[in-house]
């Protein structure tokens, strides 16, 4: 007899299945409507119909007997058809999490029967559930929404909104069919084509919101010039006013989205637009010199994969996947990269390269400095290994004084693609690391701040964060967390790292930009901040490592990390890259956080201040955020070097920095102790 299963995304049924071994029928809900199609036979080819939810229903359903057989004795791990699983537990039920993949399909069992596959994604949770077992799955979290009406999706049309300079930007407007108007509206401003993936936001339309998806200036159907960051403050403000004054909008507008879509939110909010009432900021991009493309005054090479994908009017991700990145990143001057690598000039790269300092060009898109300070209730989500993590740091700084209940923060053990992997390069995490409630949290946030619903979301913990090593979620009333103290660890002789400052000394190294150290990433993956094993890399002669003795007790660090360096060089400029690493009993050194600063910008990014040969200067480098427990038997390490190939273009050690056709060797020195107390400042939990 065929057994029924239903596919849900964010608590909404999308498709129904009836399965007996490989004999499967499926009935899918109309993308815009509410009705389901008539059941029809399913084959493996139909799995592509469900690519948006990151599940392969046909493959999984045909394997369910194999899953049940493999899990019958509750082994620690098993594999089925190349899918690898390890045992866990969820609410007292046998639970297996899929290892080694992005967007895993976890398997949940009850009384020997497979009752659901659970797929966590960055901004939603997708579930394939055996009918009758919904209460045992994350679908139960949506019980308060079960009796609420769902609406069809009606596309009102594509509208060309005039900006203040006359350029028109294209936006698609979707309304909840049959809902009484006006309704609150949600705005998404994207450089990745408004018509590609818009159905991701239909869950909000089905729950009674208008949704507006706009191509930012110069992208897809919008007019004007594509120049990353430059136009987003004014364009975002104009767009909010257009949306908020439409007859179908009740005057309350929320914004959502991740990465550049997070950046466009903060830009739109900067001028204090009266229609913006709530935001959900996910892995937001930050401002130019804090985050990119000029992180610490160093031009990002890791971001060039993204740059290549943005060289066409429509998003072209295939341009990121290349085998010749090492050769491409050696091209000088950098203005020639487009022509030599792609066979075409790239005007926006040329314009960015023409502004090496934080001048009016970059300040125009600096949402942090342009902010009026108006409170807009915001939910901020990011991860310890988000390569736009400094953008979230800026958002946390900007909103630090928000009134209670208007800011919520969720920080997990995730990369830029977010809530999507248990295994992240050199680190692996247990079941609780990924969450199935984030989409519900988003829904409640908008329902409260745009509709006025009293659902308690504003009373939940202001900060939720995951501590690695302890491998558990915690809560706090603020960020930085209140139960921790700033604790310095000082650099010392022979690479020591102690809480007490020692006598003055120095250690030098030679940095050759023709042979820089490597920031260990896969360029084509487009993830620049992953935790990786630096054990061999640290053996290079152009690294200095400062390491604590073996820790006798756990040491939990939560918060921003700052490294103060006292340095000198015989070059007029050079870069300093620092990494915080966890060294285990076997000597394996895994990078947890990092930061970089060009020495010429040690006192600010508005103008360079070049080094004098041999003169000691102070640099303060703020790294990415972290919450990590260094376990007993482990050691804490700080490494210092001057090259980070694949992260930034090597500094030539000349006044032309990263964009010189000539380079020189620099002899760099890190001073410690006495009057030059180089150290790392950690926020250590009590």
List keywords for this structure.
686 residues; alpha+beta; ten-stranded antiparallel β-sheet; ten-stranded mixed β-sheet; Jelly Rolls; 35 strands; outer membrane lipoprotein receptor (LolB), chain A; 13 helices
What's the structural blueprint in terms of helices and strands?
Elements lengths: L2 E7 L2 E9 L2 E6 L11 E2 L15 H6 L1 H8 L5 E4 L2 E8 L2 E6 L7 E5 L2 E8 L4 E6 L21 E11 L5 E10 L5 E8 L11 H5 L3 E6 L16 H13 L4 E10 L1 H10 L6 E7 L21 H6 L15 H4 L8 H6 L4 H7 L6 H4 L3 H4 L7 E8 L3 H10 L8 E9 L7 E2 L2 E2 L9 H14 L11 E5 L4 E5 L7 E8 L5 E2 L6 E7 L32 E4 L7 E5 L2 E8 L5 E9 L5 E10 L18 E6 L3 E5 L4 E7 L24 E7 L6 E7 L1
Shape annotation:
globular
| Annotation field: number of helices | 13
Helical residue percent band = 10-25%
Broad structural category: alpha+beta
Query: What is the fourth-level CATH superfamily of the domain at 484-685?
Result: Galactose-binding domain-like
Count of extended strands? 35
Pick out the low-confidence regions: none
CATH architecture verdict of the domain at 484-685: Sandwich
The name CATH uses for the topology of the domain at 484-685 is Jelly Rolls
CA radius of gyration:
26 Å
Can you give the mean pLDDT? 97
* Largest β sheet strand count, sense and barrel closure: 10 strands, antiparallel
Sheet with most strands: strand arrangement: 4-3-2-1-10-9-8-7-6-5
Beta-strand proportion: 25-35%
Query: What is the highest CATH level, the class of the domain at 484-685?
Result: Mainly Beta
Distance between the termini: 58 Å
């Amino acid at each position: 007899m065929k057994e029924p299963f239903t596919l849900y995304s964010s608590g909404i049924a999308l498709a129904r299945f009836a399965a007996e071994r490989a004999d499967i029928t499926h009935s899918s809900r109309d993308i815009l409507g509410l009705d389901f199609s008539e059941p029809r036979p399913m084959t493996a080819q139909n799995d592509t119909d469900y690519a948006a939810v990151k599940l392969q229903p046909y493959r999984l359903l045909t394997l369910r007997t194999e899953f049940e057989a493999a899990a019958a004795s509750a082994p620690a791990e098993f594999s089925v058809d190349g899918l690898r699983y390890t045992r866990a537990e969820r609410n007292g039920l046998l639970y297996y999490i899929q290892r080694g993949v992005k967007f895993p399909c976890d398997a949940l069992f009850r009384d020997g029967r497979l009752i659901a596959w659970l797929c966590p994604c960055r901004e939603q949770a997708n579930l394939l559930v055996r009918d009758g077992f919904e209460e045992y799955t994350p679908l139960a979290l949506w019980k308060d929404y079960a009796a609420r009406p769902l609406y069809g999706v009606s596309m009102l049309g594509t509208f060309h909104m005039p900006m203040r300079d006359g350029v028109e930007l294209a936006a698609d407007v979707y309304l909840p069919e049959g809902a009484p108007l006006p309704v609150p509206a949600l705005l998404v401003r994207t450089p990745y084509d408004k018509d590609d993936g818009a159905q991701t936001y239909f869950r909000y339309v089905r729950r009674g919101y208008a949704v507006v998806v706009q191509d930012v200036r110069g992208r897809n159907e919008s007019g004007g010039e594509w120049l990353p960051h430059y136009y987003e403050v004014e364009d975002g403000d104009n767009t909010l006013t257009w949306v908020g004054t439409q007859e179908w909008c009740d005057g309350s507008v929320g914004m959502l989205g991740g990465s550049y879509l997070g950046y466009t939110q903060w830009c739109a909010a900067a001028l204090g637009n009266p229609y913006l009432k709530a935001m959900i900021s996910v892995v937001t991009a930050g401002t130019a010199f804090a985050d990119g493309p000029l992180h610490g005054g160093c031009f990002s090479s890791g971001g060039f994969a993204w740059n290549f994908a943005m060289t066409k009017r429509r998003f072209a991700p295939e341009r990121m996947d290349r085998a010749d990145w090492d050769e491409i990143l050696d091209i000088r001057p950098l203005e020639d990269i487009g022509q030599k690598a792609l066979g075409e000039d790239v005007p926006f790269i040329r314009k960015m390269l023409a502004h090496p300092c934080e001048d009016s060009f970059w300040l125009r898109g600096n949402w942090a400095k342009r902010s009026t300070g108006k409170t807009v209730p915001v939910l901020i989500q990011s991860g310890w290994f988000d390569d736009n993590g400094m953008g979230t740091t800026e958002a946390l700084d900007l909103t630090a004084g928000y009134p209670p209940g208007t800011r919520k923060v969720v920080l997990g053990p995730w990369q830029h693609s977010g809530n999507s992997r248990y295994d992240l390069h050199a680190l692996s995490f247990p079941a609780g690391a990924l969450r199935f409630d984030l989409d519900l949290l988003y829904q409640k946030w908008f329902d409260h701040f745009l509709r006025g619903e009293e659902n308690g979301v504003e009373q939940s913990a202001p900060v939720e964060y995951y501590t690695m090593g302890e491998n558990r979620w915690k809560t706090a009333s603020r960020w930085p967390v209140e139960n921790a103290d700033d604790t310095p660890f000082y650099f010392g002789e022979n690479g020591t790292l102690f809480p007490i400052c020692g006598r003055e000394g120095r250690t030098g190294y030679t940095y050759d930009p023709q042979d820089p150290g490597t920031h260990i990433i896969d360029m084509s993956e487009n993830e620049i901040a992953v935790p990786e094993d630096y054990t061999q890399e640290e053996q290079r002669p152009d690294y200095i490592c400062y390491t604590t003795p073996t820790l006798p007790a756990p040491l939990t660090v939560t918060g921003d990390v700052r490294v103060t360096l006292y340095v000198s060089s015989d070059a007029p400029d050079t870069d300093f890259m620092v990494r915080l690493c966890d060294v285990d009993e076997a000597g394996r050194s895994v990078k947890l956080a990092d930061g970089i600063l060009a020495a010429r910008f040690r006192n600010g990014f508005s103008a360079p201040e070049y080094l004098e040969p041999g003169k000691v200067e102070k640099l303060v480098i703020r790294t990415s955020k972290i919450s990590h427990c260094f376990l007993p038997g482990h050691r804490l390490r700080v490494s210092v070097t001057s090259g980070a190939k694949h992260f930034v273009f090597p500094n030539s050690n000349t006044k032309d920095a990263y964009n010189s056709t000539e380079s020189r060797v620099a002899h760099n020195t890190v001073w410690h102790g006495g009057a030059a107390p180089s150290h790392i400042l950690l926020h250590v939990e009590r």
